[in-house]
Amino acid sequence: MSPAATALTVMIALVAIGTGVGFLAGSRQRMSLEQWTVGGRGFGALLVFILMAGEVYTTFAFLGVSGWAYSRGGPILYVLAYLSLAYVASFFILPQLWEVGREHGMQTQPDFFDARYRNRYLTGFVCVVGLLAFIPYLQLQLDGVGIIVAATSFGHVGRITAMAVATALVIAFVFANGVRAVAWVSIIKDLVMVIAAGAIGIGIPIAHFGGIGAMFAALAQAHPGHLVMPGATANLGHAWYITTVLLTALGFYMWPHIFGATFTAKSADTLRRNAIVMPLYTLALALVFFAGFATVLILPHAASGDLALLTVVRQTFPPWFLGFVGGAGALTAMVPAAILILAAATLFAKNLFRPLFAPSMTDDAVARLARATVVLLGVVSLGLAIHGASTLVGLLLTGYAMVTQCFPGVVLGLYWRRVTTAGVFIGMIAGVLTALSLMLSGRDPIEGLNAGFVALCVNVVATVAGSLATAASQTALESDLH
Amino acid sequence: MTRGVVKAPSRGALALGAIPFAAMCFTVALWDRVHPLILGLPFNLFWLMLWIVLTPCCMWGAYRIETAAGRRTPRGS
To answer: How crowded is the C-beta side of A273, counted as CA atoms within 13 Å?
Structure first.
């Protein structure tokens, strides 16, 4: 077998095993879910740690981080800071959110806005913002599959073909109710990713330089500027770093699917204790940083940063291992894509379309609409992924610029009595319009600052000013009601 | 709920939570450099990894303060 055939066979086998397990587990939903929870309680500390570390290795972390470490250098360090600080911020927000959620039986992010602000147009707008943020995130996952398959097949399978097949599989996955089975696929994926990351992060520096320390010493000698900010960029300096870390750390829990997961916790205390340990898992990302920086010296002129890591893996390891990494990577992209697409479709059908346009719609009709939305979203994201030219990190930051606009509504809603519905509405519209206009006109970063963060500041100011201006009328209205 | 707002975290816990933000975010200009290489890592990478380990220590302190405050003033007060 040629190297390309070997790599491709291993990759397809791994994806087939992963999706097969997903479909099988999906067909016995109740049973497998129970087993998962019970099994989860029986796992030892080491296995739990490996699985949690594996969770860290998303398509973004694997290809996006290594790609930016290669093409931009120092600025990618923002990822290590923002993940840790997102958990710190969550310590002060999620337990309180959980308490409120229990009192009001909340399940989703729009539920919170609905209960706090009691305005279906604001709730609908929150849904629209969530959907807008999901699209680049979904595009990121599909882009990831395209890159992985193209590299693993030595270019024999095109990017577009790979993305189309992956999209079809993801839609089939969701249609077959396979999302509950995601837990099973995740176990396989996490184990494989930990092995792959270890081999790549430690193996590549050793194979080419004799060790990690030697690799950094060589890089510090050859390109010292690449390791610090702004690295290979002109405008991603310290101001960009601070604003980007703040935007993403505060926005992390505003993603509708992550926000909703808060309500599944056993208690507010569970969320607090989670927030203490979670930063440690960020350490697992260090391996990707090692590999990404190593590629700078090994492969000085790669066509695309996102592709650089896999090219070096191809040069360093035997073809079957490339297939192994490719298969794990493809699963890593497809599983979150399935979760995202389902969350987005549910958000659209249940929280946006029904309350605003068809209050009398039956649950069955909502379910049918959600399924149709799954296909539509899949096709739209595929189209964008085929034509889009952004880097993986660029896509994620676009999503963050949108989704973080929910932050003032959530935090002020929890902690500030005087925030009003009108204030939050004005603030979110101002924030979203600022973010869209800056990003679509290519002014990100603006004056060295992250455009999404600038939009967040506009949002906060408008929310506070709007709340103070409308506070009097709302208090009057409330005292009328009581 | 339109009027009921949750109890804010205590000042001490917020102060401890501010430490990782200061160390990993706001002070970037002070530690963003290659030399000295420590444990074979560039200084900025080493600094961030060090603080990933120190952050849980800060948050453990914040947790102690929060749970102690929670016991003194039961929920709903």
So the answer is: 7
ipTM of this predicted complex?
0.89
Residues in A touching B6 (Cβ below 8 Å) = 96, 99-100, 414-415
Alpha-carbon gap, residue A26 to A178, rounded angstroms: 5
Measure in Å the smallest separation between the Cα of A84 and chain B Cα atoms.
6
Q: Is A417 an 8 Å CB contact of chain B?
A: yes
Task: Find the closest chain A residue to B11 by CA distance.
Answer: A92
Reading the block at residue B13, the tokens are 């816990």
CB atoms within 10 A of CB A177: 13
What domains, with CATH codes, occur in chain A?
3-392 (1.20.1730.10), 416-482 (no CATH)
Residues in A closer than 8 angstroms to B44, CB to CB, are 74, 77, 227-228
CA B35 to chain centre: 26
Q: Chain B within 8 Å of A229 (Cβ-Cβ)?
A: yes
Half-sphere exposure of A430 (CA within 13 A, CB side): 21
Report yes or no: A456 and A428 within 8 Å, Cβ to Cβ.
no
Q: Which residue of A has its CA nearest to B18?
A: A88
What's the gap in Å between the CA of A280 and the closest CA on chain B?
Answer: 6
Asked whether the beta carbons of A291 and A204 are under 8 A apart, the reply is: yes
Q: Measured between CB atoms, which of B14, B25, B52 is closest to A246?
A: B25
Domain boundaries, chain B: 12-70
Per-residue pLDDT 10s for chain A (482 aa) are 788 889 889 988 988 887 777 667 655 544 443 443 334 444 555 666 666 666 667 788 888 888 889 988 999 999 999 999 999 999 999 899 988 888 888 878 888 998 899 888 899 899 988 888 888 888 888 888 888 888 888 878 888 888 888 888 888 877 765 455 566 677 777 788 888 888 889 999 999 999 999 999 999 999 888 898 898 888 899 999 999 999 999 988 888 878 877 877 778 888 888 889 888 888 888 888 999 999 999 988 877 788 888 889 888 999 999 898 888 888 888 877 887 887 888 888 888 888 888 888 887 888 788 888 888 888 888 888 887 767 777 788 888 888 999 999 999 989 988 899 999 999 999 999 999 888 888 888 888 898 899 999 999 999 999 999 887 665 555 544 44
Q: Are A348 and A361 in contact (CB under 8 A)?
A: no
Contact B48 A81 (CB under 8 A): yes
Q: Do A227 and B13 touch (CB under 8 A)?
A: no
- A125 vs A135: CA distance, rounded Å: 16
- Nearest chain B Cα distance for residue A29, angstroms: 36
Q: Kindly state the tokens that stand for A333.
A: 């992209």
